[in-house]
Amino acid sequence: MALGKLDRYFIANFVQIFAKTLALSVFILLMQMVWKYMDDLAGRGISIWRILELMGYWSVSILPMAAPIAVLFAGIMVYGQWAESKEYAAAKAAGFSFLRMLQPVTLVLVVIGVLMFFVSNNFIPVANYKGENLLLNIARQKPTFKLKPGVFVSGLDGYSVKVGSKDENKIYDVILYDHRERGRGNTGVLTAPEGEIRYPEGSPTMTLVLRNGRSYADVKESVRQERLRHGAVSTTFDSMTVRLDMSSFILGDLGIIQRTNEYNMLTINQLDTSITVLNGQITQRMNEVSRSMRRKLGGWDTDRIDAASARGEDWKGEYSAWNRIQPIHRYRATQSALNLAQANRDYMRQIGSELEWRNQHLARHYLEWHKKFSVAMACVLLFFIGAPLGSIIQRGGFGWAFVASVLLFLLHYVLTMVAEKLGRTWVLSPFWAMWGPNLVLGPLALALTVWAARDGQFTLRLRKAKR
Length: 467
Hints:
The chain is of the alpha+beta class.
């Protein structure tokens, strides 16, 4: 199809609004994630470049949520503006029907859908892989050490430190509690009117040089004597040096990989391989359990029982297990049987929980596989809801478009989340869990498109009702 001037105008207008809306959606969702993980990021001595790197990974990972709402918003706003400014009427007078006006933008949607699938399959797994590992490593870092005047700082190699005031590397009115011996509390106290702190950046050791101070230490006695009384020794000193191990406060390697092969870190081909492996593991585990239970419950004299049954004899009498046990041992045998039955019941419950977990893990892989395709289709579907709705309402302002797109997207999002949770437990199959919301909103998109193609206008009906 050759693109005319009007087609290029439609495409340029839509792409311009879509790009702005996509950037706005990514920013809003990104800020939501930043606030969510603020406690894991603040006060840990992480460089701004590492934070920006993590936000870059997050920006890629939220594209499947940002792109559909951007398409919906752009569709409502663009076609609403055309209808409100009478451009739609002018285009119709030039021979462009509503369906004809959708054609050039549909080509853009096909490109957006293909790009979304490419991003979901190639970029998002890498972003999730690096982003989750980076966030996990950042969260495990201890907060940056700060010696605040008037506040006790604990966790310093078995010591608690408090300073009255601080002037660069000079400290005053120092109190140092020694609680290195577990279960005994504070076994010693150091006080000094002044001192000096030496802590080069990145050093594993912090040195406190205390001057003109006093120390108090408990006297170690036998357990019996300790029950009767506690003693303490007080000494004075001109200068004392205390070295504290600060290795736990040193920023570790944030590039360490701790999580791999998660379902959201795999491409389509990797998911196929992983699904095959998981299905094989479930089958193998079920076979192992079956063989184990056959060994536990086997060993009966079935040949004689079968022979007695073939002769028409009552094998329950002569060949029953109860008759083969001496009366004196029957109570013990009964208790052993009960214990064995209870053990087998507990074992099967454990196996049931294990297989439930394995099936849920498998379901997440299936859901992720279908999600890569359903997200691309959601962009197309929501456009065919937004564009007709904007044409019907004939309102193209930012406020109306924003409210309508948010409400419609929330409807799609809630349906997706509910269906996905049902799919994780196999209440719904992964296919219907991922494609169900699109199929539910499909008739709405079709009805709105048909209504707009027939020049349906909600505003005109309101005016007629007022008259």
